[in-house]
Amino acid sequence: MRITFNFLNKISLSNRTKLKQFIKALSQSEKTAIVDLAIVFCSDKYLLNINNEFLKHNFYTDIITFDLTSKKDTEKTIEIYISTDRVKENAINFNTSLQMELHRVLFHGVLHICGYKDKSKADKELMQCMENKYLNKYFK
């Protein structure tokens, strides 16, 4: 699995090697073959433009995940966009650290690729449970 971090907006992301290894282990644990994962850290404005253009949503969000895998491929090619502005605001609103919230959002995006949803109440509860499971494993 190839993982790249792209910074269009400044944010501190410590121990990238450990994080890459953990994301690989997470996807393997969830039986999802990801071959290429690009993670883009951007501003609210940048992500709002993507949300408008591709999803026809006119609101801020902390993350958008795109599965770019062709129908013929079994291994996934993924792009994850994360608004660092939203992550910073959410960390304050949820009374958590910036690093914890950043990793929660990142794991959330990877979990979407692994098939987890968050539209219904039950799906949201399961997603939150899985986020917490992997946050606890990562930060233990």
Structure description:
- The protein is of the alpha/beta class.
- The protein has one domain (2-138): Metalloproteases ("zincins"), catalytic domain (Collagenase (Catalytic Domain)).
- Helices cover 50% and strands 20% of the residues.
- It has five helices and four strands, in the order βαβαββααα.
- The chain has helices at residues 16-29, 44-55, 84-93, 98-113, 121-138; strands at 2-7, 34-42, 63-67, 76-83.
- A four-stranded mixed sheet has the order 1-2-4-3, sandwiched between helices.
- Strand 1, helix 1 and strand 2 (34-42) form a beta-alpha-beta unit.
- Helix 3 packs across helix 4 (98-113).
Low-confidence stretches: none
Return the structural class: alpha/beta
The Cα radius of gyration reads 14 Å
What is the helical fraction, as a range of percent?
A: 40-55%
Q: Order of strands across the widest beta sheet?
A: 1-2-4-3
Q: What is the beta-strand fraction?
A: 15-25%
Shape: globular
Largest sheet entry: 4 strands, mixed
What is this structure's SSE topology?
Blueprint: E1 2-7, H1 16-29, E2 34-42, H2 44-55, E3 63-67, E4 76-83, H3 84-93, H4 98-113, H5 121-138
Parallel strand pairs: 1-2, 2-4
Antiparallel strand pairs: 3-4
Helix pairs in contact: 3-4, 4-5
